[in-house]
Amino acid sequence: MRPEPLLEVKHLKKYYELKKGWFSPKQQVKAVDDVSFTVYRGETYGLVGESGCGKSTTGRAILRLQEANAGEIWFAGENVARLPYERMRRLRRRMQMVFQDPYASLNPKKTILQILTEPLRVHGLYSPDERVKKASEILKIVGLSDYHLHSYPHEFSGGQRQRIGIAKAVILQPDLIVADEPVSALDVSIQSQVINLLLQLQREFHLTYIFISHDLGVVRHITDRVGVMYLGKLVEQAQTEKLFQEPKHPYTQALLSAVPITHPDDTRERIILSGDVPSPLDPPQGCTFHPRCPACMEVCRTEKPPVVDLGEHIVACHLYV
Amino acid sequence: MGNRSPILEVRQLQTHFRSGHGVVKAVNGVDLTVYAGETVGLVGESGCGKSVTSLSVMGLLPKPAAAIVGGTIHFAGRDITHLPEKQMRKLRGNEMSMIFQEPMTSLNPVFTIGQQMAEPLRQHTSLTKRQIREKMVEMLQSVGIPRAGQIIDEYPHQLSGGMRQRVMISLAMLCQPKLLIADEPTTALDVTIQAQILQLMKEIKQKQQMAMLLITHDLGVVAEMCDRVVVMYGGQVVESAEVRTIFDQPRHPYTQGLLASMPNANERKGELKAIPGSVPRPDEVGQGCTFAPRCSQAMERCRHDRPPLVALPRQSCRCWLYAGEEETALEEVAHAT
């Protein structure tokens, strides 16, 4: 039985234009270039990749925090990308975001009570008294207490702030939460607490997550399916275990092999990629990965790789044609 | 590691910060030894004092707010605890050097790479201008920087993060130091670049027979790089042992908790074993064991008395659980080697 799709992203594109002076031609940065994927209800979909690969931009474009240039985003039967502002605002009740930096994403001038009741107020839910009740309930769920309602964000540690950021997203009981590197800024011992919280909330509220991260250990633990991005493109997508056991795309193979070992006696065949990620301003012709690819062929230099479906395992590479 | 002469010996180091709310004991009695040619990992979370320890060694503490109030630091047999700045400058960048986490903020944006790299050579050697330039190009090439001859005349913002970190490494390596302190050298980098840089650091270390103190919170990096590990918590060393002992038989509840919370040690999608509570601020540390409030095995005694560093057969561990096992529970035998 196939679960029902909650979100379908089709050919999403987000280009930024750079002005380089009056007369020189405008340059384009293709931050997200023709990305398509589907997220099913109740699952955790991971988006991984290195900095600048467009994973965060994809997440923000889904919530229309950044307007996409082209493409469709189907959520609950509506094309989110085309919705007028007011309706989009109402729809956000069902799609929320958790940000990376818990220090920057909470308003320092508001108390926790104000921060938590604001989304309820904006969406006109409940009476003022009920909102306070809701806020204290959700605080307990994320592991804080009533006692914290009248404190300000600066009084909390990073882990506690991230709990508040998550509470703020969950209080509306959304269907979908886009979590952009939610644990990257936290200490190791706190990371596992927050991951546990995310898993617990998912069970309790039947949430669907898009989990954006560069930490492959965490992604392997928490996600059901993973999409790997490189220079604005989705290069591979598969079920998490399958992807980690049999990565197909040469980039995924290199990325997974680069993860530090977990025990000093582990040995790992390491594929060290040469060079850096090329500038997205001037991406290489053909397959964008070809200058660093250990399996580069002649065709890779000139032609864009097709997207090949190997049975629930999608890979964009000439090797599998 | 045949060579057993210590390059760096830190004994009972106490570094305190004066703040508006009183004295903060950032480093509270740390013992640490680095032998020639080995890599020691200094592991801990933010605020545990690992960076302050390294800054104390380098003589880079922000003065006058911070000061070493107790203990000694010996470098290559010489006491450098309170070395005057002038003499410290002769050591720094020459016999010991440091790499920082943020390669963007630790390079000066208004000088070219060449101007910055020439500085230690002008300070510590008597090479001519041409020789300096040759040496710099050679060094940059050895860390894998393409077009080294041109990059010398470029500014830091023209390089990528990985490249900048390579420049930082070559800058630190110019005078062939005996000790390299690397403070989270790969934390700001992507995994594929991290793998490149770690590989590079291993090669350099081997070639130059240099000792390295690697400060990190990433146990994967530790497994990859280190011979010995020192785990810090709340300004103190809580466990120190060979790297395999740390991974196979950690004894301190904090080390055990850290290892158990790594996602790969847990069932997929299952609940991770987490350490409850949060890292204490240095001013929150009370009496007794600093880890007691978060420890699942804490006893009454832990809340009142600070545990000593207990010398166990294969490691030393600061915990009351093991106090009976070894009678020589002395601070002096703090070094599991």
TrEMBL record, chain A:
Q: Which InterPro entries match?
A: AAA+_ATPase, ABC_transp_ATP-bind, ABC_transporter-like_ATP-bd, ABC_transporter-like_CS, Oligopep_ABC_C, P-loop_NTPase
For this UniProt record, give its keywords in alphabetical order, as a comma-separated list: ATP-binding, Nucleotide-binding, Transport
* Location of the ABC transporter domain: 7-256
> Example GO biological process term?
peptide transport
Its domain of life reads Bacteria
Alphabetized SMART domains for the sequence:
AAA
Please name the PROSITE patterns in this protein's record. ABC_TRANSPORTER_1 (PS00211), ABC_TRANSPORTER_2 (PS50893)
Family designation: Belongs to the ABC transporter superfamily.
Specify the species.
Brevibacillus parabrevis
Protein's recorded name? ABC transporter ATP-binding protein
Query: A Pfam family in this protein?
Result: ABC_tran
Any one GO MF annotation of this record: ATP binding
Oxidoreductase: is it a keyword of this entry? no
Automatic annotation (TrEMBL), chain B:
Q: What biological-process terms (Gene Ontology) are attached?
A: peptide transport
User: According to Swiss-Prot or TrEMBL, what is its membrane topology?
Assistant: Peripheral membrane protein
**Major localization class:** membrane
Classification from the root reads: Bacteria, Bacillati, Bacillota, Bacilli, Bacillales
- What is a single cellular component term in the Gene Ontology annotation? plasma membrane
This entry's Gene Ontology molecular function terms read: ATP binding; ATP hydrolysis activity
Question: What's one Pfam family here?
Answer: oligo_HPY
Q: Which family does it belong to?
A: Belongs to the ABC transporter superfamily.
Report the CDD domains cross-referenced here.
ABC_NikE_OppD_transporters (cd03257)
Where does the UniProt annotation locate this protein? Cell membrane
NCBIfam families with a match to the protein in the record: oligo_HPY (TIGR01727)
Q: What is this protein called?
A: ABC transporter ATP-binding protein
Which PROSITE patterns does the UniProt record give?
ABC_TRANSPORTER_1, ABC_TRANSPORTER_2
Keyword entries, A-Z: ATP-binding, Cell membrane, Membrane, Nucleotide-binding, Transport
* Residue span(s) of domain ABC transporter: 10-259
